[in-house]
Amino acid sequence: MTMLDLRTDAAPASAFESAAARFGILEKPDLAFTPAIARETEHLYEKVKDFIPAFEWAAYAPYVHAINRLKKERNAVILAHNYQTPDIFHCVADIVGDSLQLARDATQVNAEVIIQCGVHFMAETSKLLNPDKTVLIPDARAGCSLSESITGADVRLLKQRYPGVPVVTYVNTSAEVKAETDICCTSSNVLSVVESLDSDTVLCIPDEYLAMNVARQTNKKILTWKGHCEVHERFTADELLAYKEANPGIEIIGHPECHPDVIAVCDFSGSTSGMINYVKDKRPGRVLLVTECSMASNIQAEVQGVDFVKPCNLCPHMKRITLPKILDSLLNMTDEVLVDPAIADRARLAVERMVNLKQ
Ligand code: 13P
Ligand code: SF4
């Protein structure tokens, strides 16, 4: 029998020239901790000194210095989510925020290059809103359990099962899923988005707990999916009640990706920026943030006189982003985030409907 060899030595034609080819690769800078670097990064160390011991700053500072220099050289802007570590959040980010703020701010960016310090769906959202810019993520493996929980094919089946029911998709999804969607939402606008739809029944996917939490605030019938955030699903109401008992007067504020039983024992619930604003405005004497634990450190650096109780649940995906990887991104123009043109227009429409919704 003769086997047909269909392989070819020619590399498959790429639809895009890589960012490295367009911008060129830069040489790695010297990362020695010199007196000049110590001086030039002193004001940044002030912001993170409670989290990074002075002897460790010698390892951080050369990266911070090189990243801030290369950002200008590359005409790049760093967008960082509230869950990034304090060194990234306070020392190299240009814009910080929750998912909605980052999506909104991505539409206002003037730079040629966006470096997304967050997870992959956030970088995809930035690319959707900036098709002509180069969007990089320092580690393309930074995923999200909610985003992984559902595919475009799943949404098509849901639409067949519930014909005519509008689909609201959490931004924590792939562009492929967004393309099947009427409108996106984030944890800060999910109620307004649901209420904006002219239908008594709404599919709110893929976060089951976010959907259950919004169902308690609206008269509409909410249908959902069984996706969960692997960080927020770990918190329990019993654990929080134990913290309350051990810390009389403590205020507990939770992210709506937590189970409704957890939210029921919280004094306030909101998006990551909603939680930050609550702490900044109300200045509780003692507070526990029921969310990813870098965020408490990021706010702690900005508010005085608030005692943070910190159960530490980390998002392993957010934590893939580090200073050395951000530097590599800038040097090598990687990892570039591209969205399949066959789905980009429909996915963009769903994000733009959300961004343009009057609150
Ligand atoms: P926010 O939109 O509240 O920032 O939430 C994003 C997220 O991934 C929370 O886990
Ligand atoms: Fe996804 Fe949860 Fe991580 Fe947010 S914290 S990125 S929802 S896995």
TrEMBL record:
EC numbers on record: 2.5.1.72
Residues involved in iminosuccinate binding: 81, 99, 170-172, 187, 255-257, 272
Entry-linked Pfam families: NadA
Binding note for cofactor: Binds 1 [4Fe-4S] cluster per subunit.
Gene Ontology molecular function: transferase activity
Cell compartments where the protein resides: Cytoplasm
Residues noted as binding [4Fe-4S] cluster in the record, renumbered to the chain: 144, 229, 315
Main location: cytoplasm
Catalysis performed (reactions): iminosuccinate + dihydroxyacetone phosphate = quinolinate + phosphate + 2 H2O + H(+)
InterPro entries in alphabetical order: NadA, NadA_sf, Quinolinate_synth_type2
Kinase listed as a keyword: no
Gene3D superfamilies found in the cross-reference section: NadA-like
Superkingdom of the source species: Bacteria
Protein name per its UniProtKB record: Quinolinate synthase
